[in-house]
Amino acid sequence: MENYSRYFRQGDLIAKYLKGELSDQEREELEDWLAQSDHNRALFTKLTQEATINTELTKFGSSDKAEAWEKIVSETGYNTPNHRSYIGKRLLRYAAAAVVVILAGLLLYPFNRQSQPTKPVAQQPTDFAPGSSKAILTLADASKIILDDVADGQIAQQADVVITKTADGQLLYAKNSAANSLEAPITKSSYNTITTPRGGKFRIILPDGSKVWLNAASSLKYPTKFIGNERSVTLIGEAYFEIMPLKNAHKQAMPFRVHSASQVVEVLGTHFNINSYADESMVKTTLLEGKVKVIRTSPDRAESSTEIILKPGEQAQLTADAKRRLNLIPKADLEEAVAWKNGQFQFKDTDLPTIMRQISRWYDVKVDFQGRLPDTKFRGKISRDVPLSQIFQILQLSGINFKIEGRKITVKS
């Protein structure tokens, strides 16, 4: 038989939320429950509507609350030695009403609902859809291709390189097998730039087979063919890299170098993430596999390292202030660093401005703050595929309010 204990606990938490009596620990517990699924958020939305809770509260008047409670117990099979004493608790009527709606919601979904789609909260007219796969490719001749508008297949050719958009939404560079082998070898590469807008993301396979995932509001400049003794690209924003080892014509290893804000990351073959947005307080380079060297290119204005060699699980942080300190974080949160690539927002003791910067980029909205911001730190995980209103539901548990005007979000405490 289904164990209903957890639903009674959730009913109790929602009741305390309605009465403004949640402790910090209970608020975190409720936020975690909301972040688990669209179904939970839909129930919470229903429960926080005044009409719903008033309707359910009528079932728990002073004359019939014991009878109604017994009905819940008999229908769910939930029974404990002290369930009668629960009736006398101060929060009974709110908690019982919450439990009724939760259990009623469960009846709309079979208990094997993990294998069935859940029904998300209806998107409001002022809501914002999440970002999607879209980008602009700028070719060496400055012509532009809007990648989300073009059909799959070959979209361009530069010298002996063919550029293809694959069916699974990637940009692929490959040697043209039909190219004339008698043509003079290319001695100088031309450069392309792929740019994701706010609310966009894209994946690309570079000419050497290396894979790059670009986050929203980012760009990557790279050659159409890697020649010489090194491979060099330039990043603005955030990207996750999986670099293929490569040797030149002389059988020498060709290092891969990523140039970003005031630093260069040098690798041979490895997996890593770089977050170098201009509006963040530092550039973060997080290593998941292999080995990389992070080199500070800004003037030496501080007594800190000019370069750091990272091992898997470590992170380099380069401050964005005038001192440009380069610091090593020996135990980085790898899951949080690449959550965006895996389709998640993940927060671990994250402040509100940091969260809103991520929201601004992914949902393509402008964010302003009004009044004094709370010092609240947020923890939780939620899909990046949900409408913005579902994230607001969780943040509002901590007393954060939002005003929407067009694509402008004003955050008020």
TrEMBL record:
Q: Which domain of life is it from?
A: Bacteria
- TM regions (residue ranges): 91-111
**Do the record's keywords include Transmembrane?**
yes
Domain Protein FecR C-terminal: start-end pairs: 345-411
Any GO molecular function: sigma factor antagonist activity
Keywords, alphabetical? Membrane, Transmembrane, Transmembrane helix
Keyword Lyase carried by entry: no
The FecR protein domain is annotated at 193-293
Q: Which InterPro entries does the UniProt entry name for this protein?
A: FecR (IPR006860), FecR_C (IPR032508), Ferrdict_sens_TM (IPR012373)
Q: What is this protein called?
A: DUF4974 domain-containing protein
Q: Which organism is it from?
A: Spirosoma foliorum
